């Protein structure tokens, strides 16, 4: 009985680790040439030297840009209390400059115990920001602007970026702008007047190497020795895990995982699935858990959708494919029906249905997104006439038909001939 | 269409749907017992009148054991954080009902919003906030939301506040219930946000911003006590975004197989033996067309009535002979109904209002129902009918033939055309005809429509003198050129009700082009009601 609740506790611990990126990336914080150290040095030097600075953190999604920055901030706030105030913006929320300035003033007010007015105009907020920058500069306080999804701020007139960077040009101000983006060309998106005010420091975040991945796995999954868990349980749990890590089959699993996507986020999702599959009776993770997790995370949605199709829907798909192979310019429901009829004429079968039944199946296919309309323009036109395109490739369709358990032989024959 | 209405899932009740307040699509709360004046508590975020145990839950959804167990595993033990989940699968595979019932089973607090009822960002945001703030729209607050918020930035701030107060109160509750009696039946201090029908967000105005925002919401909030669950009919790869998004964890609900369908349909049947022999006969052919529960149930329920007709007593357990007898009896009906599946029966309504006309009309053209009803089941002015016919003609016929079709002698063009057709031109025409069928109705400028309109109305006016006996003067009664003045008005109302669609302007001419959106059957019906010989004017091979 005790074991089961222990296992549950362990599961909760592991799950909260997996959901907390700050914990995951803390592993990289002690090596000297990591992004963590570089970023920390850069920001802390501009705090101590009281200068303006700007930097871009670039890299694919799920490589820990935000998490590393948060770790750095956490440390800096401890090191230099009362010398930093942090303003966080997100391009998804504040790409509109009006909204962004409002949010900046709101956070500034919150930070400095000032009264924030919702009714303040854009101009008021802009002036407020500039004067706050000056005041903070006089008080030797650095304002850190964190712009997540930086590329979205570069849309439109880039008024926010301009006013922010322009305000930083004065000697009195003291601010650091950190842009975070998954677009590697984020700095190319900037206008000339903005780019000239931006220092071109960039930090590149890459997916972890194989060795790092191994370290990361141990960092995440091993239970801590000095915790509330009984020693024997922790020892048994960790022993089993290390044995699994050494297993060739496990290595293979991790390799196939990182083959398609080697970012940390992908790994975390995989581990999350494995951990939630943990057997509570034994209280230990097993190799089967990891294998099952791999199969749940590697989905082939088009093949799944194909398996869900009815026979009639398969007929329509094959007709579409044939039309595509014939390079017929216009493909819509009517031309598909013509093809369907010709197939039926050459290979008579019981699967010949009335037009409205086929139309319904056609609409089902649209819903499944195996086919889609070619354009969004012809809203007024009825479904039968709008041109459609196939969203599934030939090999996928071929494979899907092969694995469909009661697929009519005719369809196989047609597909073989087309191939 | 996508709503599950099959017998096994009709218990799908969200708090919203079981609520009494009419205007509370999203803000409704658990029970009707709570009067609208009573303030809501955290308990109302849990959907549990009676708790359901796991075995019941699994039995309740046939062939969803795998999915249920996986979801429960992913939700994890009490108070364990969770990465966002993405539940997907075809229509009527029990996604929403399964998820909701699981929460009933776990009795954890959750919030449910569907992107169908919340059809724009503002309504979605306010619905989520209303539920979190335990606010209910009622008369005293003028059916207004708790907070007004339109922008995602405001929403995140408000959401963060609301969530943290709620989580605090949940933590407090847990502490209290340990010391005192368990007053609350809320389990844990996680709050789950369920966003249903996510695929609709793609059609919203600012979907390019909205979707990544929703997918990234977990990372933006950074509150580990929040669980996000998205439910969608389409898989993750259909959600495109320029710079990607944080992918949620996928959970797949496959369509039911024929065997599964059989079990589902057999549930709650008074005479399972009889029904099973009925399904033996019927289910196979239907499954070749569709395996969607809602479609199949709708299609076979009238058949079952037919099936039972020869029996005196529906409680009888069929033996081999009766089975084969019944099979022979039902077989012709099956093939009949396979042809007619999914047709929308149109009820003749006398008080067909304009809006009803519209929806019905749309349904008819869309589903292409081929019913040979003699009458059209809505009212339309004579002028509009003529306009409709002329639009149809203008779309169907090539413009070059107008002169020969509508010359002063009316129908004479018909014979002329027939005379001309030689072997080669026949071939040409055939290919043209095919092209027309494939490309759909052609477009035409306003001038051509008006010209045809004038031609056919003048024919109708002078019809008594004409040699054509089919046309009598009645259709043209009180019909004079004075009515021409409001033709444009009629045209615009036809456009707005989607009988005629306004296309883009022609790049050469610059004028707006129109296109008729009615099927040939419908046009023939309208023509019949006017006693207008439409087929004479149709260009055919």
Describe the structure.
Helices cover 57% and strands 9% of the residues of chain A. With 419 residues, chain A is an alpha/beta fold. In chain A, the strands form two sheets. A five-stranded parallel β-sheet of chain A has the order 2-3-4-1-5, with helices on both faces. Chain A has a two-stranded antiparallel sheet with strand order 6-7. In chain A, helix 1 (2-18) runs antiparallel to helix 14 and helix 14 (264-276) crosses helix 15 (287-297). Chain A starts with a helix and ends with a helix. Chain B is α/β, with parallel strands linked by helices. Chain B folds into three domains: 48-253, Rossmann fold (3-Layer(aba) Sandwich); 259-340; 356-537, no CATH class. In chain B, the strands form two sheets. In chain B, strands 2-3-4-1-5 form a five-stranded parallel β-sheet, sandwiched between helices. In chain B, strands 6-8-7 form a three-stranded antiparallel β-sheet. In chain B, helix 13 (382-396) packs across helix 19 (520-530). Chain B is extended and about 85 Å long. At the A-B interface, helix 1, helix 5, helix 6, helix 14 and helix 16 of A face helix 3, helix 6, helix 7, strand 5 and helix 9 of B. Chain B: Keywords: ATP-binding, DNA replication, Nucleotide-binding, Nucleus. Chain B: Residues 426-436 have a biased composition (Basic and acidic residues). Chain B: It is found in: Nucleus.
Number of strands of chain A: 7
Helix content of chain A: 55-70%
Radius of gyration of chain B: 30 Å
Distance between the termini of chain A: 60 Å
């Amino acid at each position: 009985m005790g074991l089961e609740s222990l296992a549950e506790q362990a599961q909760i611990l592991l799950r909260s680790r997996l959901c907390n990126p700050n914990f995951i990336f803390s592993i990289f914080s002690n090596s000297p040439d990591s992004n963590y150290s570089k970023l920390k040095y850069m920001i802390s030097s501009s705090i101590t030297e009281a200068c303006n600075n700007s930097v871009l953190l670039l890299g694919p999604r799920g490589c820990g840009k935000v998490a590393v920055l948060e770790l750095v901030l956490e440390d800096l706030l401890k090191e230099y209390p009362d010398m930093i105030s942090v303003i966080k913006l997100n391009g998804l929320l504040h790409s509109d400059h009006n909204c962004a300035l409002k949010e900046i003033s709101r956070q500034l007010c919150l930070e400095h115990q000032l009264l924030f007015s919702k009714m303040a105009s854009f101009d008021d907020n802009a002036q407020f920001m500039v004067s706050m920058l000056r005041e903070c500069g006089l008080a030797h306080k650095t304002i850190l602007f964190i712009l997540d999804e930086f590329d979205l701020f570069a849309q439109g007139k880039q008024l926010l970026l301009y006013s922010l960077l322009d305000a930083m040009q004065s000697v009195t101000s003291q601010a650091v702008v950190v842009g975070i983006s998954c677009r590697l060309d984020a700095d190319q998106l900037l206008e000339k007047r903005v780019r000239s005010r931006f220092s071109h420091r960039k930090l590149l975040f890459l997916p972890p190497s194989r060795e790092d991945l191994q370290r990361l796995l141990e960092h995440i999954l091993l239970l801590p020795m000095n915790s509330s868990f009984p020693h024997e349980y922790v020892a048994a749990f960790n022993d089993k895990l290390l044995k699994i890590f050494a297993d060739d089959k496990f290595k293979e699993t991790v390799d196939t995982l990182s083959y398609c996507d080697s970012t940390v986020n992908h790994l975390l999702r995989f581990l999350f699935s494995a951990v939630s599959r943990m057997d509570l009776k034994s209280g230990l993770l097993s190799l089967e858990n990891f294998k099952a997790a791999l199969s749940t995370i590697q989905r082939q949605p088009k093949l799944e959708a194909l398996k869900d199709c009815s026979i009639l829907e398969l007929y329509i798909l094959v007709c579409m494919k044939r039309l595509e192979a014939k390079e017929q310019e216009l493909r819509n429901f009517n031309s598909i029906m013509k093809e369907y009829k010709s197939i039926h004429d050459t290979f008579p079968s019981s699967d010949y249905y009335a037009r409205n039944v086929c139309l319904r199946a056609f609409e089902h296919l649209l819903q499944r997104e195996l086919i889609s309309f070619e354009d969004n323009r012809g809203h007024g036109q009825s479904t039968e006439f709008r041109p459609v395109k196939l969203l599934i490739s030939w090999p996928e369709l071929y494979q899907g038909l092969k694995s469909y358990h009661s697929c009519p032989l005719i369809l196989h024959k047609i597909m073989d001939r087309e191939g | 269409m996508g709503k599950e209405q099959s017998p096994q899932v009709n218990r799908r009740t969200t708090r919203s749907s079981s609520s009494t307040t009419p205007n509370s699509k999203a803000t409704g709360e658990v029970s009707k017992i709570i009067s609208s004046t009573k303030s809501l508590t955290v308990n109302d975020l849990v959907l549990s009148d009676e708790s359901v145990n796991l075995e019941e839950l699994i039995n309740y959804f046939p062939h969803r054991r795998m999915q249920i167990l996986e979801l429960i595993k992913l939700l994890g033990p009490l108070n364990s954080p969770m990465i966002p989940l993405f539940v997907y699968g075809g229509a009527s595979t029990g996604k929403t009902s399964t998820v909701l019932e699981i929460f009933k089973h776990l009795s954890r607090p959750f919030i449910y919003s569907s992107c169908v009822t919340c059809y724009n960002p503002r309504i979605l945001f306010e619905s989520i906030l209303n539920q979190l703030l335990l606010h209910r729209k009622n008369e005293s607050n003028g059916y207004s939301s708790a907070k007004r918020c339109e922008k995602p930035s405001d929403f995140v701030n408000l959401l963060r506040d609301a969530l943290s107060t709620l989580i605090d109160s949940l933590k407090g509750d847990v502490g209290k219930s340990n010391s005192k009696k368990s007053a609350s039946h809320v389990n844990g201090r996680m709050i789950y946000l369920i966003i249903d029908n996510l695929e609709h967000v793609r059609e919203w105005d600012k979907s390019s911003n909205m979707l990544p925002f929703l997918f990234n919401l977990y990372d933006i909030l950074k509150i580990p006590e929040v669980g996000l669950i998205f439910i969608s009919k389409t898989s993750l790869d259909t959600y495109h975004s320029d710079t990607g998004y944080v992918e949620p964890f996928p959970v797949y609900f496959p369509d039911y197989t024929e065997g599964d369908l059989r079990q589902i349909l057999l549930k709650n049947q008074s005479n399972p033996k009889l029904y099973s022999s009925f399904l033996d006969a019927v289910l196979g052919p239907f499954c070749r067309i569709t395996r969607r529960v809602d479609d199949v149930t709708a299609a076979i329920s009238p058949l079952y009535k037919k099936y039972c007709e020869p029996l005196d007593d529906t409680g009888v357990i069929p033996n081999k002979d009766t089975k084969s007898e019944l099979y022979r009896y039902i077989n012709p009906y099956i093939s009949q109904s396979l042809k007619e599946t999914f047709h929308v029966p149109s009820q003749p309504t006398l008080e067909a209002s304009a809006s009803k006309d519209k929806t019905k009309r749309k349904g008819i053209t869309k589903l292409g129902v081929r019913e040979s009803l003699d009458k059209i089941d809505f009212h339309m002015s004579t002028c509009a009918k003529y306009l409709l016919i002329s639009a149809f003609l203008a779309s169907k016929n090539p413009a070059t033939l107008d002169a020969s079709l509508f010359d002063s002698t009316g129908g004479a063009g018909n014979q002329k055309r027939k005379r001309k057709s030689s072997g080669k031109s026949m071939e040409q025409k055939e290919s043209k005809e095919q092209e027309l069928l494939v490309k759909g109705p052609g477009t035409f400028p306003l001038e051509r429509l008006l010209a045809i309109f004038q031609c056919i109305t003048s024919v109708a006016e002078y019809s008594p003198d004409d040699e054509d006996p089919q046309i009598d003067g009645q259709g043209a009664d009180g019909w004079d050129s004075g009515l021409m003045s409001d033709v444009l008005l009629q045209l615009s109302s036809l456009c707005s009700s989607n009988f005629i669609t306004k296309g883009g302007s022609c790049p050469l001419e610059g004028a707006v082009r129109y296109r008729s959106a009615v099927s040939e059957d419908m046009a023939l019906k309208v023509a019949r009601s006017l006693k207008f010989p439409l087929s004479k004017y149709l260009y055919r091979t």
